[in-house]
Design goal:
Layout: E1 5-7, H1 10-20, E2 24-30, H2 36-48, E3 51-56, H3 66-71, H4 76-85, E4 90-92, H5 96-99, H6 119-122, H7 126-140, E5 147-153, H8 157-169, E6 175-179, H9 199-205, H10 207-220, H11 228-233, E7 240-248, E8 268-277, E9 280-289
Parallel strand pairs: 1-4, 2-3, 2-5, 3-4, 5-6
Antiparallel strand pairs: 7-8, 8-9
Helix pairs in contact: 7-8
């Protein structure tokens, strides 16, 4: 098992990357509380790059609830072990003042209309905060030479769409890599929040994947999607409160109303679902095509 080098400051990160002098660098930003889903990102980066760098930083700007921010797990030693098993070379684990050295930023990126729907509607400001830190981290991990790639999980699909748009709009010199969702044997998307679920709630949470699979199967068969059937499944799970279930364009996040009802599904789409299971909010998604 590799023992990753842990650095705490911008200067240390820059020096560690310069010392490695890589021909290619793979970067994975995280908030820690790592699990096998993160491990799949690290391994994808390891397969393509000479140097693998990850960040572990709990970003206050992404939290709407101060208590939720305070409760978020900080477990650097445990995270470093998982990262090492996946071949990570460097962990950048800064304190908040190292990222926001002038205090919380007065000037921020705005996620625009694509950041105001779905997760953005339920968590106002979340995506603006996410872009603020991802934009900084992409700059800080930039090797300035050689190939530069950043890796994100499909599980946070709306986040990925926004990051892809930011990189395109602002001409970031980085290639984005999207890694598929890692699921439990029964289909539950892996998340650090799953640890907060009771056994009964974990069973109830499987409705997210079942509802997605119902619509994905119809799409693959070129059938009308009739997403109301999937929405109806949630009414049979008293422990689960549905927030939204939609099928959208994977690039614009606009709803595909035309393909969701009476006409056969054609082309490509993205299923997005969010629900609260007990007191825990979960999201899931799946790209679909006919």
């Amino acid at each position: 098992m590799k023992t990753p080098k842990i650095v705490k400051t911008r200067a240390e990160l820059k020096a560690a990357i310069a010392q490695a002098n890589p021909g290619s660098l793979g970067f994975v930003p995280t908030m820690g509380a790592l699990h096998a889903g993160h491990g799949s990102l690290f391994k994808a980066a390891r397969d393509e790059n000479e140097l693998v760098v990850i960040s572990i930083f709990v970003n206050e700007l992404q939290f709407n609830d101060a208590n939720d921010y305070a409760r978020y797990p900080r477990q650097l030693e445990q995270d470093a072990q998982l990262a090492g098993e996946a071949g990570v070379d460097i962990i950048f684990a800064p304190e908040a003042h190292e990222i926001y050295h002038a205090g919380l930023p007065l000037i921020q990126l705005q996620s625009g209309s694509m950041g105001e729907v779905y997760e953005g509607a339920s968590r106002p400001g979340h995506f603006d905060g996410m872009l603020a830190v991802v934009s900084k981290l992409l700059h800080l991990a930039d090797p300035r030479q050689g190939e530069y790639r950043a890796y994100f999980g499909q599980k946070d699909a709306q986040q990925v769409v926004l990051i892809r748009r930011m990189v395109a709009d602002l001409d970031y010199p980085v290639q984005l890599r999207l890694v598929p969702i890692v699921r439990s044997a029964r289909g539950l998307a892996l998340s650090s929040r799953n640890a907060l679920l009771s056994d009964q709630e974990k069973e109830a949470a499987l409705i997210l994947h079942r509802s997605i699979q119902l619509i994905a199967d119809r799409a693959a068969r070129n059938e009308p999607l009739n997403i109301e059937d999937a929405i109806g499944l949630f009414q049979m799970e008293p422990l689960v409160q549905l927030d939204y279930f939609v099928v959208v364009d994977p690039n614009t996040l606009q709803e595909l109303a035309f393909n969701c009802q009476d006409t056969p599904f054609t082309g490509e789409g993205l299923i997005l679902v969010a629900a609260t299971v007990g007191k825990v909010r979960l999201i899931d998604n799946q790209p679909i095509s006919a």
